[in-house]
Design goal:
Alpha-Beta Plaits, 67% helix
């Protein structure tokens, strides 16, 4: 008896290991770069269904033997699939598990047909439950309840009065497995959320959502090297909000932050959609214009300057104010390949020195 219990316990541990490996692989490998909360495409739903079907098939292979009855965790694959993708992937998983059970694991009998119908009913049930607006833990509780009730009925239909012992073991096994899987899935989701946030914070400005200074440096060096190698046009704009300290002193830092966000949005709207926009300092932004001749860059810069000048910026109390910006523009040339940032910075300084709210070109620096 002790040996039987030990073997059963080993089988359960093996199933837990399989579930753990699959949860880790799907969360941290297959869908590692996928943002949380993004709507699934049909191809992603299909892939999730296939992965769930593979998991369910493995759980059928590594069965738990007890009292001449074979038990498995295939229902956990259905619940995990339903939580990940909703009803469509769950039905795909259910179909795969059912087909494998019918045609790959023994002959087709009345018992296997009953088990197949039970799998599809559970797939439909948990798919519906996990598609509804319940909390995470309610989805798990309701899904486990569906699995336990429907499978218990199947045990009694197939085994009659001998179905009590395997039913009790299955309910305990599924409840423990469900609790384990729920906690593990939640932990992996939190770990992924933290990882994505850390990656985002390393490259994105927390306030405006634009590239931060670190990302600007990486992209600038890449674009500069590419432009030099291919003899392409490259122009850099440095944009600075005029008298921003006065804005903070007069209206407070929360309003200053709000203005920075709005300026960032306006820069995105008025620039070309493939230009690289970054926030590189407190009130300083940069725009890297790819394959843009200098005279075209000056036209874009003037358009941006006028857009900011004419835009009513809203404060947190609903009042509106107007601000202006100064822009320094420098383009890549054979004589100034390595100091385009310095050239743009000098042009910006001249724009400030000449009265602000203007665009200044680095070409004027060499003319003077």
């Amino acid at each position: 008896m002790r040996v039987v219990i030990f073997d059963t316990f080993q089988d359960i541990i093996a199933n837990f290991a399989i579930v753990t490996a699959f949860l880790f692989m799907t969360s941290q490998v297959f869908f590692k770069k996928r943002g949380l909360g993004e709507p699934l495409t049909w191809s992603e739903k299909f892939i999730i269904g296939l992965i769930g079907g593979l998991l369910g098939t493995l759980l059928i292979i590594f069965t738990v033997s007890f009292d001449n009855t074979i038990l498995d965790f295939r229902q956990l694959a259905l619940i995990l699939t339903a939580l990940a993708g909703g009803i469509v992937p769950t039905l795909i998983t259910g179909i795969i598990i059912s087909l494998m059970r019918l045609f790959a694991f023994g002959s087709i009998t009345t018992d296997t047909l009953i088990a197949t119908w039970n799998t599809m009913l559970i797939a439909l049930g948990v798919g519906i439950v996990c598609s509804m607006g319940f909390s995470y833990w309610k989805k798990w509780v309701y899904s486990l309840l569906i699995c336990n009730v429907l499978t218990s009925i199947v045990f009694f239909l197939i085994l009659g009065s001998h179905g009590l012992s395997p039913t009790v073991l299955f309910v305990l096994m599924m409840s423990a497995g469900g609790l384990f899987s729920a906690h593990l899935a939640l932990f992996l989701e939190k770990a992924k959320r933290y990882s994505l946030r850390m990656e985002r914070d390393a490259t994105v400005d927390y306030l405006t959502g634009l590239n931060n200074h670190r990302m600007f440096d990486l992209l600038f060096n890449k674009k500069l090297s590419n432009a030099i190698d291919k003899n392409q046009e490259l122009t850099l704009m440095l944009v600075d909000i005029d008298y921003f300290k006065k804005v903070n002193d007069t209206y407070g830092h929360p309003n200053g932050d709000s203005l920075l966000k709005q300026v960032g949005e306006l820069l995105k709207v008025t620039s070309r959609n493939f230009d690289v926009i970054s926030r590189i300092g407190g009130e300083e932004f940069s725009i890297l214009l790819i394959e843009c001749p200098h005279h075209d860059a000056l036209v874009i810069a003037e358009r941006i300057r006028l857009a900011v000048q004419d835009h009513p910026f809203e404060l947190n109390d609903g009042n509106r104010i107007n601000i202006t910006i100064s822009i320094g523009v420098a383009s890549l040339s054979r004589s100034h390949q390595d100091d385009i940032i310095e050239q743009a910075d000098l042009a910006l300084y001249k724009a400030k020195q000449n009265g602000r709210n203007q665009v200044f070109s680095n070409l004027k620096l060499h003319e003077s």
